[in-house]
Amino acid sequence: MNIMKLYIDPGTGSMLFTILIGVIGAGIHLARLAFSKFGLFVSGGAKAKNKNQDDLPYVIFTDSKRYWSLFEPICDEFEKRKQKICYMTSSPDDPALDKKYEYVTCEFIGEGNKAFVKLNSLKADILLSTTPGLDVYQWKRSKNVSWYVHVPHAASDIVIYRMFGVDYYDALLLSGDYQIEQIRELEKKRNLPAKEMLLGGLPMLDELQKRLDNAGPLPDHKTTVLLAPSWGTSSIFGKYGGSIIDALKKTGYHIIVRPHPQSFTSEKDLMDKLMKQYPADDQLEWNRDNDNFEVLRRSDILISDFSGVIFEYALVFQKPVIYADTSFDRSPYDACWIDEELWTFTTLPKIGRQLTADGVDNIKELIDTVMNDESHREAIENARNETWAFRGEAAVKITDYLISKHEELLEAAKKKQEAEEEAAKSKKKSKKTKKSKKESASENKNDEVNSDETKTDEVKA
User: Over the stretch 237-276, which tens digit does the pLDDT of each residue have?
Assistant: First the structure.
């Protein structure tokens, strides 16, 4: 007898496993929901009047602990104002979980699909997040959330997200006017309703600046180069692979390699290969710290591509940068819908120097030249003005907006309820009037019948 062997490749197996976990998670949620409804039924509806008692006024959602530096100042501002907010994270070791707040609740809601199952049926008035892709993949808009707000986590183009990154948010709190123009162009070309947009600043950069101001001078150290690429086929590693590390090691300088965190998920094989090929030693270190402040502070020059870390480095630390010529491919990003050149790529030549493929072998000469060039200072200040609105005030501005929007939503809900109640009263009154007219018509008809009967009796008499 022939026995057929079924083979599932790792990619398909991973996908099926993800789907299975999602189905199981959804099943558990539905079971809990059914149990809750059953409890309401057997209690005779005693809880009906308090059905919104679990609704949250404000929720922050983050898919990674690395964004705590963005949300911590906002949470601190809510705490300061004695306003309740719930911070939900998909990282079990998020630093937020160790914070002691009175008005801010920090909650781990599971990783991956488990988190999305909770979010997809969440009850809240406003949800703030920096995670793109709402209503595109697993993360769906909950019918019980009134308003979704996006805040970017980098000082760069808002369209360097994967396709449809922020299309289905209600509002965007941005950091530069050019970002607003980009979104308006996307909305027009995709026939999307206009989102609410205003400048809110960059809490992450505000915090970096505050920490730098309080950190004091660095001790003497060997010249240190930070290599911090983005991820994807257009990144430094996607274009140059390990050849860039070979060239840097030849400089004799101390090298810190800090890949984008997403690389260890989306490009795991490449990362494993590079870390094995170039193990850490006295000259080379690999950095995966959740907080990038120390590596930015103790390095003397940054080499990157189109990663937002370039602007953290240049705008806050005001140190020189080298950006690699990686021939950025717009096709996977929202940027492919934008006609104008991206702000990132018009600004980079002003604040740094480009590294081309044929210049990799002479990278030491380029590093030395850039480190001794003071001409980038004015360009950096101009870039700060273009992409860093309300410097030092972002947490206050964002909190002001959220509270103001919440009051607006409550007022709109109140007016809607009043209108519905008035409509219900009018409908009831109309029914009552119709019933009254019908009864009156019936009485008139009876009177006519009685009158006719009387006349008939008189004739007979």
Answer: 988 899 999 999 999 999 999 998 889 889 999 999 999 9
Q: Which helix (H) or strand (E) holds 62?
A: strand 56-62
| Residue 419 structure tokens | 């209108």
> Could you give the CA distance from residue 410 to residue 412 in angstroms, rounded to a whole number?
5
Question: Using CB atoms within 10 A of its CB, is residue 440 exposed (0-12), middle (13-18) or buried (19+)?
Answer: exposed
In terms of Cβ atoms closer than 10 Å to its own Cβ (0-12, 13-18, 19+), residue 359 is middle
What's this model's pTM, rounded to 2 decimal places? 0.77
Distance CA 139, CA 22 (A): 11
Q: Nearest Cα to 235, choosing from 332, 288, 306, 336?
A: 306
DSSP per-residue letters across 252-310: -SEEEE---TTHHHHTHHHHHHHHHHS---SSEEE---S--HHHHHH-SEEEESS-THH
Six token digits for residue 194: 């206009």
Closest CA relative to residue 215, chosen from 149, 294, 136, 125? 294
DSSP H or E run through 227: strand 224-227
Question: What's the mean pLDDT when you consider all of the chain?
Answer: 86
Domains of the chain, start order = 52-202+396-407 (3.40.50.2000), 206-388 (3.40.50.12580)
Give all strands of the β-sheet with 224-227 in edge-to-edge order: 284-286, 254-257, 224-227, 301-304, 321-324, 352-355
Nearest-Å Rg of the Cα atoms of the chain is 31
Strand ranges for 103-156 from DSSP E: 104-108, 124-129, 145-150
Q: How far is CA 79 from CA 73, 74, 169, in A?
A: 10, 9, 25
Assess contact for 267 and 301: CB atoms under 8 A.
no
The tens digit of pLDDT for each residue in 151-178 reads: 999 899 999 999 999 999 999 999 999 9
Question: What phi, psi does 23 have (nearest 5°)?
Answer: -65, -45
Which stretches in the chain have pLDDT values below 50? 1-19, 21-22, 25-26, 28-30, 32-33, 35-53, 461
